[in-house]
User: What shape does this take?
Amino acid sequence: MTRGSLPLIFAAVLIGVLTFVEGYFMKDRWGSPSLEAGKLGERFDNVPKEIGQWIGQDLPVEEIVQKTAGAVSYVSRNYTHTTTGKQVKLWLIVGHSRDIVRHTPQICYPASGFRQQGPRLRHHIETADGKEAVFFTAKFEKEDAFSHQIERVFWAWNHPDHDQWDAPESSSGRENARFHYGLARALYKMYFTTTVMNNEETVDDSAAAEFAKLMLPAVDAALFPKQSPADSETEGSAEEGIVEQPGEAG
Assistant: This one.
């Protein structure tokens, strides 16, 4: 063995180790993702267009946007409060986790000319039915000669077997959805987006937070209907798609 061959051997060993790690922790054991996600997407028809004093209007979505987001199925809707006039946009999608976890507001908004205003936060929302959901949230600002926009976005994921909206974070505080969910063949992602008002002093003051408390139970009822054992067996389980990684490095 020559000294010059050592780097090649080391590189080959490293590639082998990384391939094993990816295969062990991130293995896709779920067959065709579009079939599973497509079946789950049928439940989006049950997400209400009207809830409380909020009335929704479907928004068009360009094919390139749907493809970039990895959305096999989606709900894109603007809800308006009939009394206050407040507006909140709902963006709900399902697709393969490798696509669903990639494009977050921290990537998409800067690509559209916005800049993030302040840090990204991890925010707990207590819903109208007493459950707790965890969302990331951040503000994004865009200013030009004609307008000045500041929007707040809440975003989280939900695995079809767990009925828990979550914003996975590593011990170092970095977003960790990719490792947390592994290569699950179906994963939900949801955004609540609204304009930041002058009187918004805390995250809970946001119209999106107010709307989410009311809307989340209705979304959960649509996405996680009570099933008979036969139905559950037919749809199968996506449990193996979740990968828990203790002590995940940032």
